[in-house]
User: Fold these one by one.
Assistant:
Number 1:
Amino acid sequence: MTVPTGRRARKKAATRQNIADTALRLFLEHGYDAVGIRDVAAAADVAVTTVFSHFASKEALVFEQDEDFEQRLARAVTGRAPDEPLIPALRREIHALVRHCTAEGAAPIWRMIDESPALREYEKTMRLRHAESLAAAIAADPGMARTAMACRAIARFAIDAYSLAREAAEPEAAVDEIFRMIEAAWEAARTAPGPVTEGR
């Protein structure tokens, strides 16, 4: 997670984290559907308006690192070394995200998500948004020489790799297996016919 600078920013980040941690604790203790925003606000000792100033919805409380993950994926493209190929950089970031989401204590959270239609739908929408953001970062790199459709497809594949690996018996091995296929697809797209602006 990005460390905020400045006293005000740190205080704001601490309040946000407190709300998210409190919400998750209540959701796991009492069930997601049984806990309302007012319950979260009371337990976190903040106003309801403060909760909504940090989180747009109840579902967003569960995925509090949503924005951070999206930025990390984009930085895997834009922040890599000039001579580093795209796919290894993406694979490294997906490995890191999978390790985070399969760490000790994560299983009850994913069970809660899987049991809630609202949370499943939110996660689906979130994944699509992350894929579009990642595709934009890839397409903006002048050295890619791929169509816009190829950039979108590879971004979707990378996001799906995260989802599939998270559920696999051996997540790390799953990431590597999937990325071997992604790398082959990316190389094949280099010679694919069509203008660079295809699909835009």
Note: The longest helix spans residues 7-30.
Number 2:
Amino acid sequence: MAPLTDDDDVDLGISLETVATIVDHARAIQGLEEGDPEQLDEDDDSEAALLQDDPDDMTEETLVAFIEGLNQDEQAALIALAWTGRGDYTPDEWDEALRLAHERNEGGGTGQYLVGMDMLGDMLAEGVAAFGLSIEDVER
């Protein structure tokens, strides 16, 4: 997909920096869950091994709390981005995805819902990429 021009810019309803933070955290949690303890001993510089140094910083609970601390619009945008990254919606259907995400979000529990998704970090990154943007370019 070609990058969006200024005329085509879409307001995602959440900053790329916030999405990048969530993607990094979600990927780190996934890395911890998938990490082989023997492999962690062999490669002290791997991402999963480095995260083991301070596992309190990278837990599902901290990610859920971070997401729950966002406003309702940002939470709905995260849901819609995950759905877009999963292929449920296209950028052309963004308004519909956002509307349905707001409806889904009325019951609360957004953090738990999102953290429960397999490959959350990758889906959010793909959702952003569908709009011709990249979270990889966001300074952290």
Note: Residues 12-137 form one domain.
Number 3:
Amino acid sequence: MAESPNGATTHQTVQLGADGPTVSALGVGTWSWGDSLFWQYGKGYGIEDVRAAFEASLAAGVTFFDTAEVYGLGKSEELLGEFLQGTKSPVAVATKYFPLPWRFSASAVADTLTASLKRLQLPTVALYQVHWPFDFLMGQKTLMNALAAEVKQGRIQSIGVSNYSASQMHQAHGYLAKQGIPLAVNQVQYSLLHRKIESNGVLSAAKDLGVTILAYSPLAQGLVTGKYTVENHQPPTGARRLDPRFSKDGLKKIAPVIATLQEIGQRHGKTPAQVALNWLMGQGTVVPIPGAKNASQASQNAGALGWALTPEEQEQLSEVSQPWR
């Protein structure tokens, strides 16, 4: 996305997989929308806050939203569906199917998708993903064939998986290829403080197969924003309180990464979070999907677009975050 003289921006986009839909190069993860268990929706923030996050994202050219049936037990999809009714802007929506033990037939995929589309108030979604690589009573072949049937019916435009290993990706890709449909996406955790996909084969398999990586928790749940430091240590709210990375010892370990993000950010007039997201976008076909609970966070995230780190800065960040690879 290039910046024009008046500060406006032209859209920066990425195609999902080999021939999937084109979406904004940065997305929005909506796990926090309607979720009161992990994110405490309804206490510190509510519907007007997330509506403002939706509108601020669109205003900044971020038009790709990732949700799931389990987020807020359907509430996230319902909220997104409500917000979509209030805009004429083109929006790409991704959601997910959770392979629970009692969902052991192909018809379960169709029924679950029907329920998601109803909550979203949409006839089709850009991307439909398998949330976890569980087999239970329905094998991957049956699952992939059921998803392929939905592409052929037009209710989903592309197929993705989430949290799949390299070998699981190859297997899913193989089953779909027999149906003449590419695997478009693998959604995995990826950030400067969680680089496992670079060493466990997932990133290289994605590049080999033409699969786009959707990076969830790209800001390491806020750790790379610079908000949490040893000097002003305050335990986070909610389930993050249990994460040892937010302890004083944990924050000491990540201090060099934060310092590097701040130094590079000052050079570009960007925040540590914007630098961290830009680093991810520089790793190839990677689309970060940071969460946004309000307009301020959405606008902040969008500041990762429209510019690029130098190769030297990319390498500097890769080097300082090497322990998390």
Note: The two ends are 29 Å apart (CA to CA).
